[in-house]
Design brief:
With 303 residues, the protein is of the alpha/beta class. The chain contains 13 helices and nine strands. It has two domains: 12-130 and 289-302, Aspartate/ornithine carbamoyltransferase (Rossmann fold, 3-Layer(aba) Sandwich), CATH 3.40.50; 134-285, Rossmann fold, CATH 3.40.50. The strands form two sheets. Strands 7-6-5-8-9 form a five-stranded parallel beta sheet. Strands 2-1-3-4 form a four-stranded parallel beta sheet, with helices on both faces. Helix 5 (108-118) links the parallel strand 3 (100-104) and strand 4. The longest helix is centred in the C-terminal third of the chain and has 24 residues, at 279-302. The radius of gyration is 19 Å and the shape is globular.
Length: 303
């Protein structure tokens, strides 16, 4: 693994290696073993974000420093990218100065091009196509709360064709658990996209009650992602039946967990009642961004 650009590019073995190390790093945090684990010592990593961020920025900045490195942050206003410089030119400069890059942006191709032209270890911290770091943290949370993902049923409620849904699809394809994308037909992946998956682990369902039956994990994301604000009213109207609420949780398996990648809009994709009842899991999931990302950076630094 030279980069983390998408879960599609990872094998099951690579995902499991990341998650095994993430569990170790979480367990050792604050100990002498953690202080001795400094794979980024002497390195400076760049964070290039063209999308707003809370958890991603904080978890990566803390993670780089805990691994012994330094980090600097660039928004569009801080660089020539905001004035139209091609990503390949920025990448060539950074490749001669920095030691790694963490990029949160709109186009997946920008992350791919940056990695190619810079030669640096590059991490996708979210694009419109995928959000691999979040799903790695989600898998770590499943491991902690449910003992793993083997034989489990994950139901993704809402927009089944967004970046989170696609990363979950590749995780299911590689690791073999059951994933149900519960969404209106309009918000399901296209037949052409689904044709790229051959494991039989992924299915689509338009009926929330049928989808939730027997679920081990009920998962949701915001109904209106960054860049979709103009569609907000229509999306809320078309997706309101896919809200995770107490009645839907009752359809799931006893002991099922509810997950949300945050930020959450209470009363929209999830009720206040359900979010607070499952806050322990949801904020454990948020914390695990730190540990999963430290594992990714550690492995990239050692290659």
């Amino acid at each position: 693994m030279k980069n983390l650009l998408s879960l599609e590019q990872l094998t099951a073995g690579e995902m499991e290696e990341i998650l095994t190390l993430a569990a170790t790093l979480k367990r050792q945090r604050g100990t002498q073993a953690a202080a001795a684990h400094q794979p980024l010592a002497g390195q400076t990593w760049a964070m290039i974000f063209t999308k707003a961020s809370t958890r991603t920025r904080v978890s990566f900045e803390v993670g780089v420093r805990e691994l012994g490195g330094d980090v600097f942050f660039l928004s569009p206003a801080d660089s020539q990218l905001g004035r139209g410089e091609p990503i390949k030119d920025t990448a060539r400069v950074f490749g001669r100065i920095a030691h790694g890059a963490i990029i949160r942006t709109f186009a997946q191709q920008d992350v791919v091009d940056f990695a190619a032209y810079s030669g640096l270890p590059t991490i996708n911290a979210l694009t419109d196509e995928e959000h691999p770091c979040q799903v790695l943290a989600d898998l770590q949370t499943m491991q902690e709360k449910l003992g793993g993902w083997q034989g489990r049923k994950v139901v993704f409620m809402g927009d089944g064709d967004n970046n989170m849904a696609r990363s979950w699809m590749w995780a299911a394809e590689r690791l073999g658990f059951q994933l149900v994308l519960c969404a209106p037909k309009k918000y399901q992946p296209t037949a052409a996209y689904l044709a790229g998956f051959s494991s039989g682990a992924i299915s689509c369902e338009a009926d929330p009650e049928r989808a939730a039956a027997g679920a081990d994990v009920l998962y949701t994301d915001v109904f209106v992602s960054m860049g979709q604000e103009a569609e907000g009213a229509l999306r809320f109207e078309e997706l309101q039946a896919y809200q995770i609420n107490a009645a839907l949780v009752e359809r799931a398996e006893p002991g099922a967990i509810v997950m949300h990648c945050l930020p959450a809009y209470r009363g929209k994709e999830i009720t206040e009642e359900v979010l607070e009842a499952h806050a322990g899991t949801i904020f454990q999931e948020a914390e695990n961004r730190l540990h999963a990302q430290k594992a990714v950076m550690s492995l990239l630094a050692l290659k």
